[in-house]
Design brief:
Pfam families: CP_ATPgrasp_2 (PF14403). By secondary structure, the chain is an alpha+beta fold. Helix content is 29%, strand content 24%. The protein has helices at 25-28, 36-43, 47-64, 94-118, 123-126, 132-136, 188-201, 203-207, 217-227, 250-260, 316-321, 345-353, 370-378, 404-416, and strands spanning 7-8, 67-70, 79-82, 85-92, 158-168, 171-181, 238-241, 263-265, 270-273, 276-279, 286-287, 290-293, 326-328, 360-361, 365-366, 383-387, 396-398, 421-425, 431-436, 439-448, 450-453, 457-458, 464-468, 482-489.
Length: 491
Amino acid sequence: MPESSRLQMFDEMLSDAEVAREPDAYLNADPRPHYRHLQQWLQSQEMDYLQGRHEEAELLFKRVGITFAVYGDGEGGNTERTIPFDIVPRIFPTDEWKRLQKGLEQRVQALNMFLYDVYHDHRILKAGVIPSGQVLGNSQYRPEMQGVDVPLDVYAHIAGIDIVRATHGEDEGAFFVLEDNLRVPSGVSYMIENRKMMMRLFPDLLAKHRVAPVEHYPDLLLDALQQAAPGQKRYCNVVVLTPGMYNSAYFEHAFLAQQMGVELVEGQDLFVQDDVVYMRTTQGPRQVDVIYRRVDDDFLDPEAFRPESVLGPPGLLRAYRAGNVAICNAVGTGVADDKSIYPYVPEMIRFYLDEEPILSNVPTYMCRKPVELSYVLANLDKLVVKEVHGAGGYGMLIGPAASQAEIAAFRDRVIARPENYIAQPTLSLSSCPTLVGAGLAPRHIDLRPFVLSGKHVRMVRGGLTRVALKENSLVVNSSQGGGTKDTWILN
């Protein structure tokens, strides 16, 4: 990739990322103003005390059952693990967060307008902004949704937008959107539980900062779901649909249902009669108005999609198309978070909102374009190459970490199906002080804020900060050893 597109590392606490690598730098070097109180507090603590608090947090998370499932762990099955929690928070000053929040709201608004358009008038396709084949031929596009009206024209009621930070040219610490998660975004329960843990372990530290609350997220979520109810019912029955206890995010499904005061159901708990969805209860059937689904499209309705699925009730799509139940997020939202559509989001913002994007995409090459394909093939050892329909780190090449044999094999796959791949620079994610065995050290992080859409676009002032706990690692995914931090937005 050209030199002008390279992203350099940024440290959240110190203005010089190289200084952050030196021993005790986080305790002695001059911090950014919004980290000053945290540094003073850290200077007053013994490392043994902090390590003890860290171990206490791990024990409490395990005792409460805050876990996720890891599939195929190499030991003959699936295992339940706690996500490692780092006790050093990530901090945003108010003005910085306001700009990020404004950019997120703008982006999600445009994505919802795009989803309405591709399932109705196709204005953006007719205008040639996005090639029709990229959308209508996409595996996540659902023809069954064409012409279906959804309440408030909102398709992505809950969006988890992955944000990374780096220095790009002369723009120090710029935010970049890495990807848009619009199908069944997860992780918000850990955002809430991390805050509870910090309040339990370090009330004195929180008292030194005016930190915006995040505990009210379930109330905002329930309100957004209720607004989606067909006919704008004043009283409606909301349920959370889970694949079951063996799903990796089952803790979150149960947590959110409990926090919202609604029922947690599986496919077998629901049935469809006369195009109306009902929940089985001990008092008899009860009509369901809104389903917050944590099940992928393919498994929602065996009558419409995969016949072998038992995760959703037969006839659900019929009831949905008839307008008798709301599904959040809507069926077909996946077309907007596909990696082949991601490069066009800035153009969506210009097309639908007549505004310039506040947040930038990561520089991206589309391998379906011959010129860009040539560059990618010549620089596979420097780039991250991703399948456009891939997720969870699968179907991906990280060039700098790959062997020559792996690069050669991947080259053949890209040449065979170039339209299936995009490429990006190897991101140098921003670093943040993290407690490790030797003390405080920089570790790479990203951020997933959660944006709620209903009558208005809203979000809590916070998000899930994920941290790569291994030195020099850029992998923040929990299934590959990543952890989480509390995210503080200063009032």
